[in-house]
Amino acid sequence: HRGWIEVVAGSMFSGKTEELIRRLNRAKIARQRVEIFKPALDTRYHEHDVVSHNATSIRSTPVQLPEEILLLASGCDVVGIDEAQFFDHSLVDVCNQLANQGTRVIVAGLDMDYTGKPFGPMPALMAVAEFVTKVNAVCVCCGEVAAYSFRIAASEAQVLLGETDSYEARCRPCFQAGMQEK
Ligand code: ADP
Ligand code: MG
């Protein structure tokens, strides 16, 4: 078996989870053994489901640390990881180990935080991946291609779980305009 790493990166509402679910469902159709993991802190929806903003879902296992994925993923053909930006840097080693063992690893996550800075282990994952797909949302201000997650809420914490009440997808000019108003 040959393993590799695929990364699906982009802003909020760009369809990362949708794309992850699509790839995993196709692997399931091919009768491959599939497991999905997400960081335990992401509890916006149901505890055990990876849920997309378009409301499709797939069962997942919440884990505290990337190392737990190594133990739980033994015997899997394909491992999906959602919201990867919330894990620490050890996720890079874990993904490499899985791929080296012959596992297909599909990682989805935010490439930038709400200030436009690279988010957690995502840049390193994009560097070591064989395949990187960048997906985009639609700017809520002007309808152009949106690569940024603009925070409407006042908090300055890097991690603020939320939905359309706290964030909106914006293109570069509309993101910059919004940051200057803050
Ligand atoms: P992600 O995991 O990247 O946050 P999801 O897969 O959860 O994205 O959700 C993508 C879906 O979000 C789209 O199919 C669409 O229905 C919805 N959506 C809501 N707001 C937007 C927006 N501004 N641009 C694009 N899609 C949006
Ligand atoms: Mg998502």
TrEMBL record:
Zn(2+) binds at C139, C142, C171, C174. It catalyses: thymidine + ATP = dTMP + ADP + H(+). It comes from the Bacteria. The active site is at E83 (proton acceptor). Its main location: cytoplasm. It is an enzyme of class 2 (transferase). GO terms for molecular function: thymidine kinase activity. InterPro entries: P-loop_NTPase, Thymidine_kinase, Thymidine_kinase_CS. It holds the Pfam family TK. It is found in: Cytoplasm. Keywords: ATP-binding, Cytoplasm, DNA synthesis, Kinase, Metal-binding, Nucleotide-binding, Transferase, Zinc. Gene3D superfamilies: 3.30.60.20, P-loop containing nucleotide triphosphate hydrolases. Its EC number is 2.7.1.21. ATP binds at G10, S11, M12, F13, S14, G15, K16, T17, D82, E83, A84, Q85. The keyword Oxidoreductase does not apply. Homotetramer. Belongs to the thymidine kinase family. PANTHER family: THYMIDINE KINASE, THYMIDINE KINASE, CYTOSOLIC. This is Thymidine kinase. It comes from Hymenobacter defluvii. The gene is tdk.
